[in-house]
């Protein structure tokens, strides 16, 4: 799947190609697509944070994209991902011009 941004779906609304990755018997809540260009240990850590064993599955597509499919509550995932939107290194500092 071609994308240049991280995408999140409720599992029932996810593209069929992503839903087909999930073969477990339990019904997941959500799916996340992380394009290869954005993939990295920092995003993996944020998504894995707070998940319990069996709540999360990680897949890699032939294109190198990463797909997570989870059974934990969607709000917990979005709270974790919100930390990526405001990293301390990107905080703007205002200083007066002289």
- Describe the sheet with the most strands: 4 strands, antiparallel
Q: Kindly state the number of beta strands.
A: 4
> How much of the polypeptide forms β-strand, as a percent range?
15-25%
Mean pLDDT, to the nearest integer, reads 76
Q: What gross morphology would you assign?
A: globular
Q: Please, how many helices?
A: 3
Structural class: alpha+beta
Query: Looking across the biggest beta sheet, what order are the strands in?
Result: 1-2-4-3
Count of discrete domains: 1
* Poorly predicted tracts of residues: 86-95
The Rg value, from CA coordinates, equals 16 Å
Distance between the termini: 50 Å
Helix and strand succession?
EHEHEEH
Helical amount = 10-25%
Please give a handful of descriptors for the protein shown.
98 residues, alpha+beta, four-stranded antiparallel beta sheet, 24% helix, globular
Layout of helices and strands:
Layout: E1 7-10, H1 16-19, E2 30-34, H2 41-48, E3 56-60, E4 66-70, H3 74-85
Antiparallel strand pairs: 1-2, 2-4, 3-4
Structural notes for this entry:
The structure is a single chain. This protein has 98 residues and is α+β, with helices and mostly antiparallel strands. It has one domain (7-85). Helices cover 24% and strands 19% of the residues. It has helices at 16-19, 41-48, 74-85, and strands at residues 7-10, 30-34, 56-60, 66-70. Strands 1-2-4-3 form a 4-stranded antiparallel beta sheet, with no helix packed on it. A hairpin with a 5-residue loop joins strand 3 (56-60) and strand 4. The radius of gyration is 16 Å and the shape is globular. The N and C termini lie far apart (50 Å). The model is unreliable at 86-95 (pLDDT under 50).
